[in-house]
Specification:
single chain; alpha/beta; Methionyl-tRNA Fmet Formyltransferase, Chain A, domain 2; 2 domains; six-stranded antiparallel β-sheet; 296 residues
Length: 296
């Protein structure tokens, strides 16, 4: 049986990992990416034609200059708005694997915001791409539990695996006409939006609750990273826990009985388990205290 042929749109590490998995079940006619990720994406399916675009205008020009024969395309982590003309150039359109249960967390960073908001579950939705942001009809979706200690990298890995299995399950049925797309309202989730993060998001604000800050540390561990100053030194906090019995004022620092750093917040204490001082390797809170106790 011949493998279905697809054109793949993607430009990030999530796209590269996803494409590497898809190549076992699909013929990749071409890869469309950004100039900055052209080399990385070209390694995913060696020998496959690769094209790059910097924005929507150059993407439109690419499709004027090149014609593709695949009846469907797949888009994951692309970062460029695709015009309706390009979508319609594929008889079965472009399918987007989005890492949330739509219409929940439409937008640029659903994985991070699923952790930030304290959700118990998230998942993957495969939808028909439309020009409006993440509003296309769904081919299907699958849910995934979010563990209490989940970080952005661990959740991303699980969602890539889930996306791959879902695409391989749904695309053949979609191409054969057995599977008909349905409105996003069928998932029973409420509409919400994520946004692009900024570097400022990584500054720990101790007027927030310890629970919220602990989520930020797990969500921001790749970028923008959770930063603060302890003992006059800039540090990145890599791991923390919450002590709801602590009554320190927000920003006040104390040492716990087991020689860890505790910082007061709006509600509870943020126990620093692991941190990385600027220019130094990561270390435990206790190791940092050993060399800086007099400054706290």
């Amino acid at each position: 049986m011949n493998k279905p042929s697809i054109v793949f749109f993607g430009s990030g590490s999530v796209a590269a990992k996803s494409l590497t998995k898809l190549r076992s079940d699909f013929e990749i006619e071409a890869i469309i990416t950004k100039p900055s990720t052209e080399h990385e994406m070209s390694q995913c399916v060696p020998g496959t034609p690769i094209f790059s675009a910097t924005n929507s205008k150059s993407l439109d020009q690419l499709f004027i200059n090149h014609k593709f024969t695949s009846v469907v395309a797949v888009l994951i982590d692309f970062g460029i708005i695709v015009s309706d003309t390009i979508i319609k150039s594929f008889p079965k359109g472009i399918l987007n694997s989005h890492f949330s249960i739509l219409p929940e967390l439409r937008g640029a960073d659903p994985i991070t915001f699923a952790i930030l908001s304290g959700q118990k579950t998230t998942g993957v939705s495969v939808m028909q791409l439309v020009v409006a942001m993440d509003e296309g009809d769904l081919l299907g979706f699958k849910e995934l539990e979010i563990k209490n200690d989940e970080t952005e990298p661990t959740l991303t890995f699980k969602l890539i695996e889930l996306s791959d299995s879902l695409l391989k399950q749904l695309i053949p049925d979609y191409l054969s006409g057995v599977l008909k797309p349905k409105p996003q309202s069928n998932t029973g989730r409420k509409m919400s939006y994520s946004r692009k993060l900024t570097k400022q998001d990584g500054v720990l604000d101790f007027t927030k609750s310890a629970m919220q800050l602990e989520r930020e540390i797990r969500a921001f561990i790749t970028w923008p990273k959770s930063r603060t100053e302890i003992a006059g030194k800039d540090v990145i906090v890599l791991k923390a826990s919450v002590d709801q019995s602590t009554n320190l004022i927000p920003g006040a620092i104390s040492e716990t009985n087991d020689k860890k750093i505790c910082i007061g917040t709006k509600s509870g204490g943020l126990i620093i388990e692991e941190l990385k001082p600027a220019g130094k390797p990561s270390m435990s809170s206790s190791a940092f205290l050993a060399g800086n106790r007099t400054n706290i």
